[in-house]
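Why should sequence recovery work at all? Because a backbone constrains its sequence more than one might expect. Tight turns favour small or flexible residues, buried strands favour hydrophobic ones, and helices have their own preferences. The token representation captures these environments compactly. In the example below, the structure is given first.
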């Protein structure tokens, strides 16, 4: 089953996604880590996620860009957790050489990143049946952001829409609840299994 889950930052959706990936495990269990750390806060977050996965049986594959390349590294019959589209976009939109320039305008960002990610993600979803994809819901702020931030938000929205359209189940993690937006019938039995 292809599952898309989005929600606010640091609300437990990664842990919940781990449970869902484990519940549908039939073969190898893969954790596709997309974050390219840029500071000590990122390093601490990655370490926390690694500790959270200890003992679950995940094989971690670091893939901060070109998501379709996981197809050459994995058994397609496995169960996958891709965490997260937000980090993947950051890695593609702001490659390491661009980060060194400390640029703050749209010209520094790769304007074709969303298009590339969607193309790669569709390849992945075309060949992998059991995957949980995590993203961050960053659309409800009432603030007016600078053009670079707005470009990032718009790009993530395009990627999220494409992923949600292709997935069987679409979930939103909100506070302590999970809201099912698509695939309630398919999701029920898997959710019961993930509770055990």
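From this structural description, the recovered sequence reads:
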């Amino acid at each position: 089953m292809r599952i898309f889950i989005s929600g606010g930052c640091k609300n437990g959706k990664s842990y919940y996604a781990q449970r869902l990936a484990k519940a549908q495990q039939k073969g190898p269990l893969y954790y596709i880590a997309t974050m390219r750390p840029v500071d000590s806060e990122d390093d601490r977050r990655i370490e926390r996620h690694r500790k959270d996965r200890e003992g679950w049986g995940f094989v971690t594959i670091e893939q901060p860009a070109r998501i379709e390349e996981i197809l050459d590294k994995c058994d397609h019959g496995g169960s996958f957790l891709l965490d997260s589209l937000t980090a993947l976009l950051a890695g593609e939109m702001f490659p390491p050489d661009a980060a060194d320039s400390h640029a703050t305008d749209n010209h520094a960002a790769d304007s074709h990143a969303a298009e590339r990610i969607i193309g790669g993600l569709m390849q992945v979803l075309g060949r992998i049946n059991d995957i949980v994809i995590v993203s961050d819901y960053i659309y409800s702020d009432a603030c007016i952001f600078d053009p670079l931030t707005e470009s990032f938000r718009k790009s993530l929205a395009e990627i999220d829409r494409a992923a949600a359209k292709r997935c069987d189940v679409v979930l939103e993690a909100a506070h302590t609840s999970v809201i099912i937006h698509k695939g309630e019938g398919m999701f029920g039995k898997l959710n019961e299994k993930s509770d055990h």
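A few observations help interpret the result. Strands lie at 2-7, 29-33, 58-62, 79-83, 130-136, 169-174, 177-182.
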